[in-house]
Amino acid sequence: MTAHFRVDVADGVATITIDRPNVRNAITLGMWEAIPDLIERVSHDQSVKAVVFRGAGERAFASGADISEFERVRMSAAAAEIYGKVVDAAITAVQACPKPTVAMIYGYCVGGGLGLTLAMDLRFAADTARFAIPAARLGVVYGLTATRALVHLVGPARAKDILFSGRAFDAREAAEMGFVNRVVPAGSLAAHTYNYLRRVAANAPLSLRGAKLSIQGIVTGELEIEGIRRLMGDAFDSHDYREGVRAFLEKRPPRFEGR
Q: E-strand spans in 106-228?
């Protein structure tokens, strides 16, 4: 356990749990600081093929940044700038994770907690989930890294609506605007998420990495064409490519090794 996070690995899936259920999993500055190291750990763990983030319990994914510490850690423009850089570094680290990432969202997903889910590849929500970015009601400007991700995901007009109003919206509306990929009854969300991730984890790691790099580059306009071409070549020269072709011809599930 690290700074109110738990990390568990099973069946190729790492679960990172935000573990402050008594305050609806509000995220402290220390927790933001810990996220890049957590991502580095799961990125280098060869047993991990995919990553899921969730909040402890079912009341909240995260109710946002821990406002109770704002008078100490965001008491001035200078302090707020430092705080913002820490949050941006955490979100950037999640975005850069080479393995597929999914947010499993129960209950409240607000402010910084919502920003954290924006860094992930996919978002699966319980039908009881509630979302909001109340930055305008606190007198702060929402972080640029998270805002950029929000615009890419839902478009500029919807992003303006969310940020201008600070209003809450439910899982159904979140799905309609493209913010969440799945809405599942709360009692079935964990099973649905892990069944999906086990399927992802069974696929070739080089294929997953290549797909993620290509899509991120297309979205951001920072496509590293030569790097992706090298990855394509590595994939064709890999054990997993030969195994995938053999398994297809032999009509059996492939056994990928990530090499």
A: 108-110, 122-126, 130-132, 169-170, 182-184
Q: Which two tokens stand for residue 168?
A: 């809450």
135-154: per-residue pLDDT in tens? 999 888 999 989 999 999 99
pTM equals 0.91
Q: What is the pairing mode between strands 122-126 and 5-10?
A: unpaired
CB 34 within 8 A of CB 2: yes
Output the six-digit token pair for 167.
């209003």
Tell me how far apart the alpha carbons of residues 6 and 108 are, in angstroms, rounded to a whole number: 19
Closest CA relative to residue 83, chosen from 63, 95, 62, 66: 66
Can you say how many angstroms the Cα of residue 31 is from the centroid of all Cα atoms in its chain?
15
Tokens of 230: 């090298």
**pLDDT tens figures, 169-224:** 999 999 999 999 999 999 999 999 999 999 999 988 889 988 888 888 888 777 77
C-alpha–C-alpha distance, residues 176 and 146, integer Å: 20
